[in-house]
Amino acid sequence: MEVPAAPATNGNENKGLKTLISLYSSCLWNRVVGFVPSSDSNFLGKIPIYFRGRSRKRRACLPLPLPSNSLQYSPVTTEASRVCDVLHDILEHIFSNLHNIQKNVQFWQSRAEGSNAQKVKFMVLERGPQAFIEGTIQLIHGCVAEGSSIKNICLSASAHISERIAILTNLRCSLATFLAEVYMEIDRFGEELLRDPENSLPSLLIRINGLFFKLEASVGHLHAMRQCDSSVEGSYSVPLLFEKLPEINQEGSQWTDCEIRDAINLVYQNLEKLDSYLSYIVAKHRKPRKVTQYWIRYTCGVVGLSVCSMWLIGHSRLMGSPDIDNWLREARDSTISFFSDHVEQPLLSIRDELFETFRKRHRGMMDLEEVQLTSNSLHRMLLAFSEQTKGQKFPENAPDQEMLEIVMARYEKELTHPITNLLNGELARAMLIQVQKLKLDIETAMLELNQILRANEINFAILAALPAFFLSLVLIMLVRAWFKQDTRAEGRGRIARLQRRLLVVEVEKKIMQYRTFVDQGMEKDAQCVYGLLLYSLDRLYHAVERHAKATGEWQWLSQDIIDLGKPSLQTEYKLRVTSRLERVYDCLLPSLKRQ
């Protein structure tokens, strides 16, 4: 009878050990806080131990709607900054969950807008091997039974997609409404939080705790929405139940350090419960993973890689074959030959042409001197023949053309008696002068041709290097395209710039929708749209931050984005701000206007 008592004894010992560890941890923390020099060090203890122990990196999200002249509250900067950290974490959790839900909603909406063939393709080919086998069996069974199997698959796909859209859309609306209410409360308490955080924080925590329970009620109806024949595998988890703030001194204006610490701990516990619940619900209705959607491609790739591996092993040294070594040697020799013929030799030719210009010009001058010698010799021959024929003295600078006409006239006259004049006349001398003239013309033509060839040597070298140049250009373009393949709004390039401009359009549409719902008295829908507006502003804020800081526009652009989220500003002013975003800031301009 004593044996069953052992577990209870061990349980009591474990419970006492945990209590002792908790007690010593609290004492150690109080000692550490006591060493911190501060005029009001008690407020440091109000920040939860759970929060202090977390080292999660903060994500840049839409700033809190605090007064722009917050610098005047510098005496309480430490306390106010810690309060802002708590509120910033609340918004960060909501924005992160909204982004996860929005991605899945957009995926299912794109599938819902597809044709029947695309829906059949999704149901059969993009949901994994098991869905492929089931869809194939259903199609074969429909063909054998002469039924409308494709129509049944289309109906099943429509039900499959619409169920997920309905659940995720309602979840997004509830979370967006919660975000809008929290943001408005922070905006209402903003100035008091900075001026007197100890007195205003309790009231804000009470309101936020109440908003958690409103979210719990709005999310609770998701369990009732689930159909009996739902395509979602498994059952839903335990309904979302938040921790309630203890009914202690809620009407008072001053809370103790322990009460504030417990209240902030309670906020983080509720955030953790919200994250867990949303991650479970979204995981049940999320889009298929990339591996699941493209499993056929990956399977074919794996099979092809396996076949290639076996083929390579069959031609490798492992199987006693020298084929791979021979191929590698031939590839190396071909690469070396291509490099030598189309890169090295053309570059060396260009270098020689550029750096040996003086030597080649010297050679050109020598050729010109040879032509000049022939020209001078012909001039003297023409001058002597003309003086002898005319019997008069010609000047030294007499034109060659004039004297050549005298030679040709004498030549024509001598040809009347060629045999006699060849022996006794001037016919032989006139023929020799014409041979000298022909030699001069040939040398002049060769000199011009030589100059043309030398002038085009660098062109021939460049033509030889063109294949390597084009190959390098293609490689550079491929590397550039790989670096700029990020088409998200945060990336670079034309597509990313277009995504940022579409975010501004989305913000403008949400502003108009919010104004319409407010005018029609649809408060619930207006809060949902306002929460989605804040989510779009958060995406825009995160997308333009890096680019605006690089261009020096961040100070003004960030303030404009924050102004768009303030609920107190008029719609007309916000529309003017959205117009200014598209016209002024470089990171939001169209690509054509930047050139």
From TrEMBL:
Keyword Methyltransferase set for record: no
Keywords: Membrane, Mitochondrion, Transmembrane, Transmembrane helix
Subcellular locations according to the entry: Mitochondrion membrane
Residue ranges the record marks as coiled coil: none
Transmembrane stretches, start-end: 458-483
Membrane topology according to the record: Multi-pass membrane protein
PANTHER family: NUCLEAR CONTROL OF ATPASE PROTEIN 2 (PTHR28234:SF1)
Name used for this protein in its record: Protein DGS1, mitochondrial
Organism: Prunus mume (Japanese apricot)
Lineage, opening ranks: Eukaryota, Viridiplantae, Streptophyta, Embryophyta, Tracheophyta
Gene: LOC103326900
